[in-house]
TrEMBL record:
InterPro entries: Sortase, Sortase_D_2, Sortase_dom-sf. The keyword Nuclease does not apply. One of its GO terms (molecular function) is hydrolase activity. It comes from the Bacteria. This is Class D sortase. It comes from Psychrobacillus glaciei.
Length: 199
């Protein structure tokens, strides 16, 4: 009987490990597809090619993707490269990072924009390592029209209702990166603020 229980527990453990691994691989594959699609859309827009002879369903999917993916966030110091989707909805945040609605365009002078992301329970996924960023670190946001460089100048932990931190600041283009804090809790928000800088 003990042997049966032991083998059952090992089997359940292996099944859980398989399910988690499969979920991580599926998410990584989906992010890779979003990045590749965004890159091809950006190339298409840059060369101004017309879509000729494309099936209606393919054209519709391309149109939806153009509306959905707004950029690629690259943070070398924490080895992050992730698509940014339009809107920080629960569905979007389960697949990638999300641009918080109701704020400015990241390129706007005196504007404020923000990207939200979950702290995935997998090391290096989404904003899991956002707390490792330091003042002076640089990262980039590749949009459909440009690649914007940002430099971190402020890192704060705030209560979720403290949205004043996302307000515009005169003279800079502000981009805030926001995630729940501490890990596995939503009691606070970790906010990393960066200003747009020239290359």
């Amino acid at each position: 009987m003990k042997k049966y229980v032991g083998n059952s527990l090992i089997g359940i453990g292996l099944l859980i490990l398989f399910i988690v691994s499969y979920g991580v691989m599926e998410n990584q594959q989906h992010q890779k597809e979003l990045i590749e699609s965004f890159t091809s859309i950006k190339t298409e827009a840059a060369t101004e090619k017309a879509i000729v002879g494309v099936k209606a369903t393919d054209a519709q999917q391309l149109k939806e993707l153009k509306q959905e993916v707004v950029g690629i966030l690259k943070i070398p110091s924490i080895h992050l490269k992730s698509p940014v989707l339009e809107g920080a909805t629960p569905e979007n945040l389960n697949r990638a990072l999300g641009m918080i609605a109701g704020l400015d365009d990241p390129e706007e002078l005196n504007g404020s924009s923000a990207i939200a992301g979950h702290q995935a329970h997998v090391f290096g996924q989404f904003f899991n390592r956002l707390n490792e960023l330091q003042v002076g670190d640089r990262f980039e946001l590749e949009t459909r029209t440009d690649t914007l460089q940002f430099e971190v100048f402020n890192i704060q932990i705030v209560k979720p209702e403290n949205v004043d931190i996302l307000e515009r600041q005169k003279g800079i283009s502000l981009l805030s990166l926001v995630t729940c804090y501490p890990e596995r809790s939503n009691m606070f928000r970790l906010v990393v603020q960066a200003k747009k800088v020239e290359n």
